[in-house]
Amino acid sequence: MAIGNAAIAARIEKETSTTNQFKTFLSRYFYFSMSLVFAAIVIIGFSRTVNANLFHANPPRPLLLWIHGAAFSMWVVFFIAQSALVRVHKVSVHRLLGWFGAALAIVMVVLGLTIAVVMARFDGIVLQQKDADAFLSVPFVDVLSFGSCIALAIYWRKKPEYHRRLVFLASCLLMDAPFGRFDFIFNHSLFYLVLDCLILLGVARDWVVDKRVHKVYLYALPSLIVLQSLAVYAWRINPKWWQAITQVIMR
């Protein structure tokens, strides 16, 4: 009996040790690991279309699209760098570089809204795509959601628990573009669903490490789901109220 109890105790101790190691990994390396996941998603997703739709596009795409792509790529590199700086305890450098990120985010919001309209006109007039104007709902929601998260992250920059989750959320919101490069995901309007699964990884991280879900997710995720649903509805159904708005924008 004593031997059996010892074996059970050893197994419990081993399982506890493994659980603690996993929690420690998530606590220390979750955001850095996710930054690398984002980079992989961007590379894999855009590699499917970037040659035909940008590098060797016929007809050539507007120059602004190149600038938009460069800014988008720079954000992914920025997020990796910021996550790495936190891990190596270079907090002062992290904070200094953060102001570059704030400026980059502003540029991305302006570029995102502008290129959405430019490409809608290009797709509708040059490529003769029928739903180009209706699709504006998707980039508009993406850009405004991204900008809102970054604005709140700047406001709460001295509250790390809020700040890091908001920057993570903002970075997740950019991933629908590379996810949308997969035909099945795009044709079935699943890019938001896949994107939200990335956010749920952050929720799961909180639950495992802290035994609770941070209020950033509790407030942000339901709001994002509502906005995403509205964006897909406006795109796919193209109701009259949205047609009236897009007609004004496309003039």
Protein architecture, described:
The structure is a single chain. The protein is mainly α. It has one domain (30-249). 83% of the residues lie in helices and 0% in strands. It contains eleven helices and no strands.
Number of structurally distinct domains: 1
Secondary structure: helix percent: over 70%
Low-pLDDT parts are none
Main structural class: mainly alpha
Largest sheet: none
Percentage of residues in DSSP E strands: under 5%
Shape: globular
Distance between the termini: 83 Å
Rg from C-alpha positions? 21 Å
Number of strands: 0
What is the succession of H and E elements?
HHHHHHHHHHH
In short:
The chain is mostly helical and 251 residues long. Helices cover 83% and strands 0% of the residues.
Describe the secondary structure blueprint for this structure.
Blueprint: H1 2-47, H2 50-55, H3 63-87, H4 91-126, H5 137-155, H6 160-173, H7 176-179, H8 183-187, H9 191-210, H10 215-237, H11 240-249
Helix pairs in contact: 1-3, 1-9, 3-4, 4-5, 5-6, 5-10, 6-9, 9-10
